[in-house]
């Protein structure tokens, strides 16, 4: 039995912290759901970046805000 090394969250080498747990899309997520899971993960990463989101994230958030305001 091989021991799995923690690999998530991925951190740059200059940060003195180590990853907290092991994540492997191929082992943990069924094949039919991998694309959706990866897209949601990237969306979460994009939205959770503190003030450094790319234009795409800002545009998506602005559009969602307009939709919410239209229903109010």
TrEMBL record:
<dbReference type="GO" id="GO:0055038">
    <property type="term" value="C:recycling endosome membrane"/>
</dbReference>
<protein>
    <recommendedName>
        <fullName>Secretory carrier-associated membrane protein</fullName>
    </recommendedName>
</protein>
<keyword id="KW-0967">Endosome</keyword>
<keyword id="KW-0770">Synapse</keyword>
<keyword id="KW-1003">Cell membrane</keyword>
<keyword id="KW-0268">Exocytosis</keyword>
<keyword id="KW-0968">Cytoplasmic vesicle</keyword>
<dbReference type="GO" id="GO:0005886">
    <property type="term" value="C:plasma membrane"/>
</dbReference>
<dbReference type="InterPro" id="IPR007273">
    <property type="entry name" value="SCAMP"/>
</dbReference>
<dbReference type="Pfam" id="PF04144">
    <property type="entry name" value="SCAMP"/>
</dbReference>
<comment type="similarity">
    <text>Belongs to the SCAMP family. SCAMP5 subfamily.</text>
</comment>
<keyword id="KW-0812">Transmembrane</keyword>
<keyword id="KW-0333">Golgi apparatus</keyword>
<keyword id="KW-0472">Membrane</keyword>
<dbReference type="GO" id="GO:0030672">
    <property type="term" value="C:synaptic vesicle membrane"/>
</dbReference>
<dbReference type="GO" id="GO:0006887">
    <property type="term" value="P:exocytosis"/>
</dbReference>
<keyword id="KW-0653">Protein transport</keyword>
<keyword id="KW-1133">Transmembrane helix</keyword>
<keyword id="KW-0813">Transport</keyword>
<dbReference type="GO" id="GO:0032588">
    <property type="term" value="C:trans-Golgi network membrane"/>
</dbReference>
<dbReference type="GO" id="GO:0015031">
    <property type="term" value="P:protein transport"/>
</dbReference>
């Amino acid at each position: 039995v091989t021991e799995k090394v923690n690999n998530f969250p991925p951190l740059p080498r200059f940060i003195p912290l180590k990853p907290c747990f092991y994540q492997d899309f191929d082992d943990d997520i069924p094949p039919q759901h991998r694309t959706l899971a990866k897209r949601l993960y990237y969306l979460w990463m994009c939205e959770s970046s503190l003030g450094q989101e790319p234009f795409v994230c800002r545009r998506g958030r602005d559009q969602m805000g307009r939709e919410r305001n239209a229903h109010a």
